[in-house]
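ok trying again, last paste got cut off:
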Amino acid sequence: LFRPRPGGQRVCPKSTMLFPAFAQYLTDGFLRTNMQNDPPWGTGVEDRRKTTTNHEIDQSPLYGRTPEQTLVLRDMSGVAGKKGRLKSQMINGEEFSPFLLDANGKVKAEFCDASGKPVLDMPLGIDRLPAGAPQLAMLFAVGGDRVNATPQVSMMNTLWLREHNRLAAMLEGKNPGWDTDRVFETARNIIIVMFIKMVVEDYINHINTSVFKFRADPRVAWKADWNRPNWMTTEFSLLYRWHSLIPEALQWGGQAQNGGSLLLNNKLLVDAGLATAFAEISGNNATQLGLQNSASFLVRAEENAIKQA
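nice, full thing came through this time. structure:
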């Protein structure tokens, strides 16, 4: 069903790798099968009949899916010039999320509760990295357990991290009397609306085959009888199995990078910088959505989807 024929994967004539990168960042925010890492990173107990979704497109990969997670991701200093910011660090003059683990490979205390238990969801697949693996040192402390999956997804979150902090600085500058919570929540509301507008008017319209274009204008639904809250089902997770969009290898910096080597590997992003990462990803065609077109390192994921279904 999934392995390509002898000629190799079919190339998608329409989309670059920016498309599946955005798709994964979007859907990982509201489609989350209940999966666990093995100890010490998790309980090892999975229930693939269930999801951990909060049912909203609310930028939870950036802000966390619970108030407790949001709190440990925020810079709560509240001093002038830093109100409402998310925690970040500077590397080679660029802003990134802070790293999750300390020099001993343990989750940093600032991301744990009073008992020392991590508040953030651990990156999925971290249990498959051997002790001392270089990828561990570059895992970001973020709101979603899938943000660190590949540098393509991490770059999306990094962009939104920077935009949140840029907006917070602008809001504080225009409203110096606001406290840190008001600056943060206002910036978050703006970010969520910006993201939904991009989802509908760029991403969905890229997929859309109808003669009209969708617009992110919710006014028609505000008082409509048919308006209901979202309900993201496990079955929807199975619909969104778009693994065949990912090529076996991609070109980065003039070299072929095996797709499997990118898993939980933020080094390409940090070393190249954000602008270069977007340019490199956009310079690669996606492969074509369909059967017999999945990269070798994703065939197992395809098989698991059938088992889950």
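cool. The longest strand covers residues 11-16. The chain has a mean pLDDT of 93.
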